[in-house]
Amino acid sequence: MTRLIIVEDQVSLLKSLKKGLEEEGFEVMAASSGSEGYRLIQQEPADAVLLDLMLPDGDGISLLQRIREEDFQKPVLVITAKDSIDDRVLGLNSCADDYLVKPFAFSELLARLRAVLRRSPTSNFDTRLVYDDLVIDSLSRVASRNGRELKLTQRQFEMLEYLMRNKNRIVSRDALARDVWKAATATWTNVIEVQINQLRKKLGQESSVPVLHTVRGEGYQLGDEP
Hints:
Order of helices and strands: EHEHEEEHEHEHEEEEHHHEE
CATH class of the largest domain: Alpha Beta
Number of helices: 8
Helix content: 40-55%
Number of domains: 2
Shape: elongated
């Protein structure tokens, strides 16, 4: 799952962006000040940063320059109300990968974010995962088998991506609850089993070769039959 850090001091916008990006399948860490953002960038692995320029404890340009000087090479997308040409040039000259002026449409933010992630030369995060005739693109959120797109719910896509990243390894129900549902209580009902069965049916509609296996008493495995 692609991990993002958002540094934004407008609480309502921060919550809205976090919710929207999580619904799109990103894992989001949020900071409302420059110092908190710097700590997250230093301590947490992230694939990209969304950075506001006007922060309560300093300006975002200084933070951007500081992390670049310390060799942070992941994409940084600046989001700001500063819309002059000089402001944009300063942001880009300070090694921002893109610059988006508030107010903006969430769809444009999403498109720009996916674009900087795709072209990032330093990313070691695989956005295209393949097993046999099963292919998923974690940025476009498209999965296909045998050349045909699979009609998956958001949860099913997240589950499939997680299983693909752990292909040929047994994934327990506890791991799915922790890393996909983000709630240990998901194991208290049969919700995981229901979603697995629905995903298995959708995978099977496009091929007669099973790729998702249940390992009795242990969990699930995508890939070769255990």
